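thought: fold this chain, then report.
action: predict
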Amino acid sequence: MGIFSLFGKKDSRQAKPAEKDTSRAKKQPGSSQGGATNTRPPTVKRDAKTALATAMKIDAIESEMSSEFVSITTQPPITQQKKPPPPPAPAKPHTAPAPAKPRSMPGAAQAAPLQPLAPEMGTTTDFLLDGQTAVADIASPASDAAAVIEEAAIMYANGQVDVVEQMLKSAIAEDMLGELTRTAWWMLFDLYQITGKKQEFENLSIDFASKFETSPPGWTASSRNENAPVQPAQAAKGATPMVPFSGKLDGACIKHVERALKLGENYRALRLEFAKVTEATAEGCKLVLDLFRKLQKTEHDLILVGAPELADKIRAIIEVGRRDDTEDSWLLLLEILRLLNLEKEFEETSIDYCVTFEVSPPAFVPPKSKITTASAEASAAKSAEGFPMPAVVEGRIDNLILAIAAYSDEHSPAIIDCSNLNRVDFNAAGRLLTGLAPFCGVGKTIEFHHVNHLVTALFNVIGLKDIARIVPRKN
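observation:
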């Protein structure tokens, strides 16, 4: 049964066309008098145009339904449910009365689109033709200019450099980007800078100065050519992951130890900071000692920040001749002196150790891997610059996310220095968003500084700007 049956669209006892014409000739407009042989309740007579319009609307409703309603009991004529209003004046654009709502029945879920209609819309057909839908709003970009910027950012993230160049040049030539005009210019400047196209950069600079009557961005000779092949090790070179230890060095530092071991699975160099450690305990010393031994076994290069200060904290909790539970503290002190290549101090401390525990003194063995140190002052200077991002971010970036999270543990806000960042792969950008969201959701503040305009547009597209602050590169 079609949906039109609910509205009493047609009746098997419908008068013949000739009888209709005769009846119309005998009646005045607006009369409610029916035929003598009609046994149905009185109803409103419609003219041909009104009836046709009503039928077309009902047909439109029926065509939108993907399946028919299940069988229902015979309904009374629509005039028994709700008496329609008299025909409107000819001057009004819509002459068909609004159909009554169908009663609740099995399969009502299929008719859900009919329920949210506003009274003045009349039918689903009116809604679809004249109304606005949320889907259309979501699918449509905010503006054509914004669509150009977003598409260029995504294509660049996927490495389509030539396409992006032509797209931005065409958009600038058409000069229909409104308030995003300068953004397109800056993106093209960054593209020429990254790809090493100095002549094109200078030509664009002349056009920029002529159009905006201001100085264009300057060329940076140190920019890396994006077209050059990038090895994973090179991409991560500028971002040595850091694990900061702070406060009391006790059992709670196990999370830092586990993070360092996890980072060590993919990074050959690690930066371990101890400058903010205020006190050492035997339990914490054992955990750090195990970490050092594992990293030395795998020959990781280490940057030890505040290692001499940590040695002093350990000396404060040990005493020659007192054993108790301090053996791991003695062994960590010896390991630090060995890593710092302080052979004389190592031998003096080893003698005190063997006297205390009545064992043979351990031999001094220089570290096989590269070990560098930095003072607390140098660490503070490094922190002021921010966490350095690599030139290209692509592939699996779990370790990069862990490194940023570790940096944010000790810095608020955590400044991520993107001065050397040229490109972020689109998939990697998505992983960066989902990876950092949990940390930003617990009160940590992360800021990406000196971001080129191509990457800035990408971060805006994926929504990274909603959880972190994005500071574009100054022009």
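thought: worth noting. The chain has a mean pLDDT of 74.
final: tokens above.
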